[in-house]
Amino acid sequence: MEILIDAIKRAKTTMFFTGAGVSTLCGIPDFRGPDGVYRDPDAARMFEIDLFDRDPGFFYSHADALVYGNSETRPGPVHEALVALQKAGKCAGVATQNIDGLHERAGSDPVFAVHGSAALHHCRRCGAQKTFDEIRALRAGVPGAVPLCEKCGGPFKPDITFFGEALPEEAFRGAMELAGRCDLMVVLGSSLVVQPAASIPLAALRAGARLAIVNRGETPLDRFAFFRADDLAAFAQAVQRSV
Fold this sequence. Notes:
The protein is 36% helix and 17% strand. It is an alpha/beta fold and 243 residues long.
C-alpha cells in the first residue's frame, strides 16, 4: 500500500471512484458478491423502473434492509480515510455508485452520487417531494409499506437511479469533468461492470491519468492499472498512518 500512498501524495489531482465494497465494511451487503443482494433472483428486479410503476410494493418489500434499514449505519474506514485525505488536500472529489449516503455523512465534499440516493423521494404522479425521514415516518416502520402522496395518492420513489432511468445529469457531468482533469484515479470497491458509471474511470485513463484499483474481485480495467490490490481495510489503515 505504500506504493499507492506515495502516488497519492505525489499526484496533483486525485479522484476516487467507489463501489459497494467500501460499504460492505459497514455491514451493508453488496449486490453481486457471494453474499450479495442479487443472490435472490427476485431482489435482482427491485430496481427495475417498469416493475416499480406496476407494483411499487415489490421495491419496498425488498428494500427495507438495503435502503431503509441503514439510517443508523456509521461511515466505515474507507469513508473516513477519504475524508482524511481530503483534509490533507489529497482528495479532489469522490464519485460513488453507492446509494447509502455514507460518503456525505462522513464529510466528503464534493461527492458525485452517480446512481442517486434515497435522501429525497418524489411522487411518480405529481412530483411532490419528501425527505428520507419524512418517508420513514409515512411508512411508520411497517415492512413493505408503500408511502403514498397526500395530494394525489401516487407512490413515492427514492431518487435512486433504477434500471431504465438516466443517471442524474449534474452528478454524472461533475464526475466526468473531474475525471477528465485528474492525474490519478483510484477505484475502491467497484467491479467496474455497471455502465455508464464505470465509464468514469475509463474517461480518466483516456485523458492520461494513472489508474489504481483496490477491489476484491477482478475488473475489466485491471490490465491498465499501475497498482492493483484487493484489501480495502489495508488501504484505509495505510491512509490513516500516512496523514
